[in-house]
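User: I'm putting together notes for a lab meeting next week and I want to include a structural view of one of the chains we've been expressing. I don't have a solved structure, so I'd like a prediction I can at least talk through. The sequence is below, exactly as it appears in our construct file.
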Amino acid sequence: MLKWKEEYSIGVAEIDEQHVRLFEIGNQIYDLLENYLLPDKYDKIVTIILELKDYTIYHFKTEEDYMLKIKYPGYFKQKVAHDDFIKEIENIDLDAIDHDQDGHTRKLLNFIFDWVLDHILKSDFGIKEFIRITR
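Assistant: Thanks for the context. Below is the predicted structure for the 135-residue chain, given as structure tokens.
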């Protein structure tokens, strides 16, 4: 489980709120993994993956629009990272998940938490720093 901390904030309310939502979606996966009373989690996993994909597309558009608005010089690097993340989500092997639900879902959870946290603390903090020095 990953908890949002104020230190993850980049100082743009709309983007920070969306980052919180990404943590919540990741935690839905965590909660599903911890639910030992549900033997077949496949449908729920697929639903969460689809929600994650749709929400990240929405979030990345918001973030990219904001970067363009402030003329952020790291926009193209961020855009590539965003596109790569979406491709990773689109390429999830649902058959593999169906055959080893907990194992593959745990890998997915680790990927999401690692990527989101790393992206916020490294790439998105660049936006925070850019805002700070241009104000």
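A couple of points you could mention at the meeting. The chain has a mean pLDDT of 92. Helices lie at 13-34, 42-69, 75-90, 94-99, 101-134.

User: Perfect, that's what I needed.
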